[in-house]
Each structure stands twice: as C-alpha cells, then as structure tokens.
Prior knowledge:
The chain is an all-alpha fold. It has helices at residues 2-31, 56-70, 77-103, 111-131, 154-172, 178-197, 207-234, 243-260, 267-270, 272-291, 301-307, 312-335; strands spanning 138-141, 146-149.
Amino acid sequence: MEQYAKLLLVLLVGFFVSLILSPIIISIIKKEKVKQVILHYVESHKQKSGTPTMGGIIFIIAILLTSLIFFDKQNMTLGLVSLMSLFAFGLVGFLDDFLKFKFKQNMGLRPYQKIIFQLTFSIILSVFAFKSSLIGSAIILPFSGRVIDIGWWIIPLNVFVIIATTNSVNLTDGLDGLATGTSLSFLLSFFALLLILFGRTFEGQSTIYLQQINSVNVVVFASLGALLCYLLFNSFPAKIFMGDTGSLALGGMFAAMVITTKTTLYLPFLGIMFVASSVSVILQVSYYKLTKKRIFLMAPLHHHFEKKGMHEVRISVMYATITLVVGAMVALIELV
Length: 336
C-alpha cells in the first residue's frame, strides 16, 4: 500500500512540475518564434500553422526531474535506462525540430541522418541490455507464463523494436492530443501488465530485480503526471505541439521500458494504435508503388479518418480508448 501511495505522489509531482514548466517554456518558445510549419497537403490543418512546437521539452524535463527525485538510489538502473533513452531520442527530435525552425520548412534532419542517430542509440541500448546482469537475453513469452532465453538474437530484436517504436509514436503525433492521449493509455496498460506479470511470471526472481522494476514504475507514473498536465495544453485546439522532440523521446522511453522489463513481445498489443500508424504508412507506400493506387485516403491512418469527415477530437479519443481497451484485455488474459 505504501508503494502505491508513493507512485500516486510521483504522479502528482510530475503533474505539478509540468504545470509550472508549461507556461514558462511556452512563453520562451513563443518569444523565440519556434512555430510549426504545416505540411501543405494537409488542407484542414492550415489554421494550425504558427502554433508553437517543441513542447516535448516540457514533459521531458518534468519526467527527468520527478523520476530522479523519487528513485531509490540503490535500485534505479532500469528506470535510469528509460530516462537515458528518453533524453537521447529527445535530443534527436530536438535537433530535427530546430532545423525545421531555422530553415522555416517541414524538413529537419534528412531521413538518413535521423536513422543514423536512431540506429546508433538503439545499438548502444541493445548491447547494454544484453550485457546487463539485470536484463540479459531473457524475454517473456506472452500469454504462456514462460520466460525464454534467445541469446544474442535479443540484440537485433531490440534494435528493431527501438527504431520501430520511436518512429511509430512519431507518426502518431499528427493531431491535437493524439500521441499524448494514446501514450497515457499505453502507460496505464503497461503498469497494469507489470503488476500482473511480476506477481507470477517472475516468481522466484531476485528481490533486487523486483526493486529495479519499481524504478520503472516511478518513471511510468512521472510520465503519467507530466503527460496529463501536457494534455491540458496539447488537446484541441492545441496551444503547443510536442514536435519530434517529444514524440521521439516518448517512443525511445517506451521501447526502453519494455526491453528492461523483458516485456518486448507485448509491445504490439499495448501500443496497437502506434503499430496501426506505421502499418498504414507501409501498406500505403507499398501498394502505391505496385499499383499506383491508394488503400487509404491519406496515411498515417488518423489522416484517413480525417478525410472521411471525423473530427480530430473524436479520432484522438478513439485512439486512446482502443489502446486502453486492448491493454486491459491483455492484462486480463494474463491475470486469468
């Protein structure tokens, strides 16, 4: 009970740190005229042009500060890995956003430059995880109650997961509150899964590892608090966008969380709408190259729904709801 009270406190502190930072950072960004350049082919988003961006700085700082305050300094390795991934990928996103702002266009880092940065950080994190006595090459097999060891194959798997997750969250950040709301649902589902799994799957696991899992929970609740506050400013009509600074940071953190808790194979379920964003783009591009026809009116998928006449608020709520419901189903299956 004491642990849950602490996590609730973490959430509240994360919220209020974000609340204090938000007007300050928004004011600075407005003063520096760091504004979003809207893609010309998204007709319905013309009115969003000029909205301040790089708002991810707000929750990145809030998550970092709150987590570091509440970590058990003796058992914070796993949580610290998530924070380092948050910061590293946030840095890539920041550079991308800065170049967009500097040159007043929607092209920041070139695709090859972005993938080099992402691949470098992904390999570093994956190799560290493989060599870590806390993480290693073991992975939980969903819905089986089994933990399997896949040896060095865990490295390419983790590299793929990190790059796929960061870019999937980035693709989902296309409407007011969309990535933020979906991320909140992901975090809630992820915490529920950890509660269930580490009460059973890791029966007999060392107390040290379970204490390390608690450091991940601290990051989860710091993120919940920071993002809940950020949603106040990012929901429709958004006063600020998270930019690649925020979306890449969140994707990197989510990937690190599942890798350090050995729940990597649950990610496609918990992040189902992030997956939908990526898959819709892959299908659209592949099908068009083959047939010169399109499957969706526009990709990623949320823009298809927009083209069909659905309001972006409804789309954002739908994404968050589906993510939460699927996450709850996964947790329920594991529970029974």
